[in-house]
Recover the amino acids of this structure.
């Protein structure tokens, strides 16, 4: 809790500023929202003492206060805070992670000397591949089309998002953008100065301080109107260069009725996490199993999709192929759907889709129907129905648990826009699960989940 | 071996012999089994004549046929005619079959389906359906049978010389004028050129005359001996009336009744003016074309009934026109009454009624007796003492002699305004305004002379009234307001000078008084005097500055209005896009492209994204137009799973709620069952690493396994075969401490 105090203090001050703009200058502009979200879930099955209902409340803030001064000083907060009414977190073992998340909280002074932005606080820097830092960022704006920046400070704890004095991060980035191209490149370095006590007496495996370093590159390109190319790449270099993230997509919209897309990607676990988490941090039982094994998991994926628009209807199909490096298994995933924004002329929005999956170790079919209707100009009802049927066709590391399953999901939501500042959402989902071949459970399970949210919009 | 070879040789010899005999029979077959020749070749139906047609091993070559049918050979050699196109070196007997009996006709002519095009003469129009023999009339010399050779393609060969002397006229080929489709219908585009090929070029209406109108009879297309128009036209005039004159002196081919080209000057009486347009018979008679009397009266009647005696008509009239501006008569110099002023515009008949021109009186009364409004007031004094022909109503009377000289507007007033009875006033000594003018002010200004406001006689209007003399100074738009707008019903005093006395206070009770705090007399619109930026807490930008006040302040409401956009604008998004319209819209231009680019493909922004400020993705200046172009969430979001789930965030998350809303753990290959349902994700996925973890029980429960060491109940390290890899043999996911039904500790009982 002590480690979270600075962030909470920052959040509290940001909140105070956000909800008290009239006390400031007349030019102050507040934008964003504050939301109170609650979640209640219960399966009604008293088979263990752990089977208890869960009730959690979240306070979410995503707001900016701009033009605090004549110079345009801006304050921003993007975070989530948890009120756990049922103390659900006490049931976990191992290291406690925090659900309190402060994704961004910073103060920005833009346009110093007309070209320089100075940002202090917790920043998620998009130009640097969403690099994360608690510190200072200097951004130089060049000719309105180019930007160059450097940043440095503490690196937030990647597990519980807390302020961590033992971790530091620094980096630099450049960016260029106009109407046709939006590109950026960055280099990020993170250090870890945590002492041996942090590793429960074990010797830290990496003697040097380098914890992670990666290069980042992103190019979004508009070839012509309707033809877009987007690339996104992260190369981790803490141990040896490895492409841990690679995205490439071509989206083509030759007319307002036809949309085509090709997407390839590669996703891999960052190497540095393998050693820290699975050899030193995790509970001994897990380390016992893994031993010196270094997880080398990557997904390579290719996806082709096409969308055809006929008036209020939108028909889409996609086929996707995935392969994972862990065991060489591959997967096919086919989706076909139809979206109608004016079903039968009633103004109801409908989406029906079917998914066929030849997954890594299972086959499944999913049929989903979603209906949304504006009952009045302020109330929208959303109903959904999902039917899932699947069965295992292989085992996972020579281990097969439940072989087949049928799931029925029925949901109903109501979105009430009381006014343009106040919104209330209510949602209920009932999940009915049937295990076909596992006699170890007491039949089917009916899980009820209700969520509520109140949004205040600035 | 030898006998076998002999047998093979004998069978080969037999085969060859059989083939040879068959071939001979095939060649000699016709000779042995043929029927008699047809009648036309009956003279050859003898054994001695076989070789006339047949040649050994060649059958019936064409050359043998052509020895007799020389006329066909000639046409084949000339590459003409039907056979030249049809026959390609084949034998004649391909078509002309023989040895089929005496009654067989070797000429397979199918008259109904014969393709005449192959003869080189295509049958079209009227030729189609004509019987063959109507054109092919020739007979063969030897046999006197019908022949189809030698028919000429010339039209005359069948149709003869219809036109008789056409040869002499060198009319040329029939096709110049005719075609096979309709003989009587001449070609639309005649190839015959009458202009060049005859001595009589066609002009005028002759071009449209049908040929047979001139070319009469059977010899009609022979040369016509043209001896003047009368060759074709009949002379309608009485005989000899024009002597030796020929028709062309008067008439032209463009039209018989067209204006004559006759030169009238040759008669000594040239036609001028309107005489040029007169038709001949208006002056001449059909039966008597000789010249008439050249005097005007020879043709024209005297409308003046002899009032002008022997005066020639031409003194007043001329040939260019009888009336109006063509009249040469000058009233000023040629009469006793020169026309002056308005008299010049009076029509003649107004004074010269019934065509009477002389004698007439020249006094005013002779015409204006009925116009005299004065009765006997002025006695015998001539009208011209006061009036002039320039304008009857503008008199030359010097009003000064009455003691009341006219000034200002009085000068322009007609006399009857003051002298309504057309006479002198009853008491011309009274000169007070009220004598003529009504006091519209109803004694509000009693005692004050009229000229205090209505100065002099220049203008009666109040415009010249100096309002500074009153308690209310006129300025701005008040200067242009008509007096009656503020002084209705002629009420001038007493009047309250407050704005509300004249203007309705639309703003009451919002603004009870002090109109001039917003409005000025220079313009009623408050913008003239009202600074919205400083006097309200709602500054106007962009297009708001150009709006009429009433656009926002509808129903005259100026206070207590909401300042949000939806106070005036309808939220077409019904709140789905959040509270701040300015995220997407500006006051400079309401239109925005957000929302269009965000519906790109199967993924379109919604949910919480709708509530985000544009700047969150597109930068503070919204100039990152390509931000989020890639369909993957990572373009904007940080991947909290560190890559262990891949880029398809929407498979688990929705835009409405970011909590995993649709994630099915079963899809991972490890179905959550029993107590696993109630543990949090991070319990098994520390560090937010979700992918690649083993599904073995011992991955999470290894410490429990180890903790049983030394347990008197069940020391797993000793009792469990296979160790940590076979937990499910005894345990279920429902409760770890209860063994699977039917499982006992037999293993333990057996002991290590």
């Amino acid at each position: 809790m002590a480690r979270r105090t600075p962030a909470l203090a920052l959040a509290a001050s940001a909140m105070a500023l956000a909800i008290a703009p009239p006390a400031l200058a007349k030019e102050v502009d507040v934008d964003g929202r504050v939301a109170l979200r609650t979640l209640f879930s219960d399966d009604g099955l008293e088979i263990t003492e752990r089977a208890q209902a869960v009730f959690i409340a979240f306070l979410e803030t995503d707001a900016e206060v701009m033009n605090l001064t004549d110079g345009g000083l801006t304050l921003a907060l993007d975070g989530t805070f948890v009120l756990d009414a049922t103390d659900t977190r006490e049931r976990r073992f191992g290291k406690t992670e925090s659900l309190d998340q402060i994704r961004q909280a910073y103060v920005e002074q833009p346009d110093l000397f007309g070209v320089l932005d100075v940002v202090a606080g917790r920043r998620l820097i998009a130009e640097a591949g969403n690099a994360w830092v608690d510190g200072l960022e200097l951004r130089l704006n060049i000719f309105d089309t180019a930007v160059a920046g450097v940043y440095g400070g503490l690196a937030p704890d990647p597990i519980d998002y807390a302020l961590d004095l033992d971790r530091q991060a620094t980096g630099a980035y450049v960016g260029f953008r106009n109407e046709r191209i939006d590109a950026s490149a960055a280099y990020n370095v993170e250090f870890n100065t945590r002492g041996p006590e942090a590793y429960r007496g074990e010797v830290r495996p990496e003697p040097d301080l380098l914890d992670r370093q990666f290069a980042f590159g992103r190019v979004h390109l508009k070839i012509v109107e309707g033809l877009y190319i987007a690339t996104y790449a992260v190369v981790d270099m803490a141990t040896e260069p490895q492409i841990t993230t690679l995205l490439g997509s071509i989206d083509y919209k030759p007319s307002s009725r036809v949309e085509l897309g090709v997407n390839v990607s590669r996703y891999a676990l960052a190497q540095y996490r393998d050693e820290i988490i699975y050899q030193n941090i995790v509970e001994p039982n897990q380390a016992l199993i893994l031993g010196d094994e270094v997880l080398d998991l990557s997904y390579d994926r290719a996806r082709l999709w096409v969308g055809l628009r006929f008036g209020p209807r939108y028909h889409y199909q996609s086929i996707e192929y995935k392969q994972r490096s862990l065991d060489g298994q591959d997967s096919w995933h086919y989706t076909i759907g139809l979206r109608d924004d004016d079903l039968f002329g009633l103004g109801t929005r409908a989406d029906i889709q079917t998914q066929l999956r030849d997954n890594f170790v299972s086959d499944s079919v999913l049929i989903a129907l979603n209906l949304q209707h504006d009952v009045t100009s302020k109330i929208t009802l959303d109903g959904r129905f999902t039917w899932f049927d699947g069965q295992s066709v292989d085992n996972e590391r020579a281990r097969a648990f439940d072989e087949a399953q049928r799931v029925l999901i029925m949901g109903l939501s109501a979105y009430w826009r009381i006014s343009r500042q106040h919104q209330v959402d209510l949602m209920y989902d009932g999940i009915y699960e049937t295990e076909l071949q596992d006699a170890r459970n007491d039949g089917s399970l009916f899980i009820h989940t209700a969520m509520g949210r109140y949004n205040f919009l600035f | 071996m030898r006998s076998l070879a002999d047998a093979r040789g004998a069978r080969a010899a037999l085969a060859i012999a059989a083939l040879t005999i068959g071939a001979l029979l095939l060649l000699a077959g016709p000779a042995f089994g043929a029927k008699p020749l047809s009648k036309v070749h009956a003279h050859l139906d003898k054994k001695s004549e076989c070789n006339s047609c047949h040649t050994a091993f060649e059958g019936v070559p064409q050359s043998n046929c052509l020895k007799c049918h020389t006329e066909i050979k000639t046409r084949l050699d000339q590459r003409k005619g039907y056979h030249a196109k049809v026959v390609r070196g084949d034998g004649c007997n391909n078509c002309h079959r023989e040895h089929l009996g005496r009654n067989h006709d070797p000429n397979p002519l199918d008259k109904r389906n014969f393709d005449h095009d192959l003869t080189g003469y295509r049958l079209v129009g009227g030729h189609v359906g004509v019987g063959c023999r109507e054109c092919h009339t020739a007979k063969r010399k030897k046999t006197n049978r019908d022949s189809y050779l030698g028919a000429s393609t010339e039209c005359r060969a069948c149709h003869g010389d219809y036109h008789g002397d056409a040869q002499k006229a060198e009319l040329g080929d029939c096709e110049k004028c005719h075609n096979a489709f309709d003989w009587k219908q001449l070609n639309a585009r005649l190839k015959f050129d009458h202009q060049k090929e005859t001595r009589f070029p066609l002009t005028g209406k002759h071009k449209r005359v049908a040929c047979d109108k001139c070319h009469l009879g059977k010899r009609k297309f022979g040369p016509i001996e043209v001896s003047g128009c009368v060759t074709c036209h009949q002379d309608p005039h009485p005989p000899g009336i024009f002597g030796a004159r020929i028709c062309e002196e008067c008439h032209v081919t463009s039209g018989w009744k067209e204006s004559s080209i006759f030169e009238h000057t040759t008669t000594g009486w040239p036609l001028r003016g309107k005489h040029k347009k007169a038709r001949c018979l208006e002056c001449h008679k059909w039966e008597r074309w000789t010249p008439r009397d050249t005097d005007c009266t020879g043709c024209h009647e005297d409308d003046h009934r002899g009032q002008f005696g022997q005066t020639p008509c031409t003194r007043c009239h001329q040939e260019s026109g009888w009336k109006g501006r063509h009249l040469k008569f000058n009233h000023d110099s040629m009469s006793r009454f020169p026309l002056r002023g308005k008299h010049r515009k009076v029509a003649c008949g107004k004074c010269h009624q019934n065509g009477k021109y002389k004698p007439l009186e020249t006094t005013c009364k002779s015409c204006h007796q009925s116009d005299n409004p004065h009765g006997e007031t002025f006695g015998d004094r001539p009208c011209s003492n006061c009036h002039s022909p320039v304008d009857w109503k503008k008199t030359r009377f010097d009003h000064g002699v009455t003691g009341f000289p006219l000034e200002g507007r009085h000068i322009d007033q007609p006399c009857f305004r003051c002298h309504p009875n057309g006479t002198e006033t009853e008491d011309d000594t009274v000169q007070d305004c009220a004598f003529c003018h009504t006091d519209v002010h109803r004694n509000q200004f009693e005692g004050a002379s009229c000229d205090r406001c209505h100065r002099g006689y220049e203008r009666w209007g109040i415009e010249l009234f100096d309002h500074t003399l009153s308690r209310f100074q006129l300025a701005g738009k008040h200067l242009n307001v008509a007096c009656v707008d503020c002084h209705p019903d002629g009420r001038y005093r007493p009047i309250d000078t407050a704005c509300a006395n004249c203007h309705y206070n639309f703003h009451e009770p919002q603004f009870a008084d002090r109109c001039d705090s917003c409005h000025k007399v220079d313009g009623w619109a408050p913008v003239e005097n009202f600074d919205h930026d400083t006097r309200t807490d709602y500054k106007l930008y962009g297009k708001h500055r150009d709006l009429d006040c009433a656009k926002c302040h509808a129903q005259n409401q100026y206070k207590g209005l909401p300042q949000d956009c939806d106070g005036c604008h309808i939220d077409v998004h019904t709140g789905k896009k959040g509270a701040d319209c300015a995220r997407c819209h500006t006051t400079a231009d309401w239109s925005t492209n957000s929302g269009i680019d965000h519906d790109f493909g199967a993924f379109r922004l919604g949910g919480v994204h709708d509530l985000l400020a544009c700047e969150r993705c597109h930068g503070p200046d919204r100039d990152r137009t390509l931000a989020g172009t890639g369909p993957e969430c990572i373009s904007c979001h940080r991947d909290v799973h560190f890559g262990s789930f891949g880029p398809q965030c929407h498979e688990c998350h929705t835009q409405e709620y970011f909590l995993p809303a649709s994630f099915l753990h079963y899809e991972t290959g490890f179905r959550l069952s029993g107590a696993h349902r109630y543990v949090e994700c991070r319990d098994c996925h520390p560090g937010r690493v979700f992918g690649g973890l083993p599904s073995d029980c011992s991955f999470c429960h290894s410490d429990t396994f180890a903790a049983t060491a030394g347990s008197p109940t069940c020391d797993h390290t000793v009792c469990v075969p296979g160790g940590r890899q076979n937990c499910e043999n005894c345990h279920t996911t429902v409760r770890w401490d209860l063994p699977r039904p039917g499982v006992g500790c037999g293993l333990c009982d057996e002991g290590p």
